[in-house]
């Protein structure tokens, strides 16, 4: 310090970091993984997000803008574009081991929409959701309330590609598939949505509680674009779970009866409004 010169105020932590060329921005690894999946970036790709060091690279990719652009693109698609888009999707690591994307099956103008968690081995092989033992049980559940696959019923999954070893889909994988599920709902505009399992419930409703706490609640999905009303939602057990836990079949039957009553109410209201 030179004579007679008073020291200035001490530098803040942010200023110190900037002086040595470092950014003070940090993000949790899980947050980065979800952001990458939403933007369509592989989890293993070198740093491209704000807050990560981008060494020997061009300016960081604007992740929020990339995610918004992808979502907007899918939101403009019709049925002919959705399947090839999902088949070509590389938004998460599930594409590396899948045989094919499993978009959904059934009546594309259905009143009933059933959403499961993710394809299993048989679904991955055949390209259709719920075709194994769990699928047979789902068909029996539909028949119990006078429904059948493909007749005023559409069946989809929250995640379109099979997770390894049929594990539960992760948050980042659910996030990467969310635009496809949202577009399916907007195109179908069902009168009622039945969510089969915890992952399906969290995909549509967010992490708002356990499956047991969601059962029996009055839940709604916001009105899709072009629709003037929200959609009632019923949460129940996944058929694969019911195959392992037989006593809970009675609870699932209660949920189906409630769903049938809600559908009758929705149709009666629509008839009065017509």
From TrEMBL:
Q: Where is the Uracil-DNA glycosylase-like domain?
A: 103-257
UniProt superkingdom: Bacteria
What are the GO MF terms of this UniProt record? 4 iron, 4 sulfur cluster binding; deaminated base DNA N-glycosylase activity; metal ion binding
Entry keyword set: 4Fe-4S, DNA damage, DNA repair, Hydrolase, Iron, Iron-sulfur, Metal-binding
Q: Which Pfam families match?
A: UDG
Residue intervals passing through the bilayer: none
**InterPro entries according to UniProt:** UDG_Type-4/5 (IPR051536), Ura-DNA_glyco_family4 (IPR005273), Uracil-DNA_glycosylase-like (IPR005122), Uracil-DNA_glycosylase-like_sf (IPR036895)
An annotated GO BP: DNA repair
UniProt similarity note: Belongs to the uracil-DNA glycosylase (UDG) superfamily. Type 4 (UDGa) family.
The protein depicted here goes by the name Type-4 uracil-DNA glycosylase
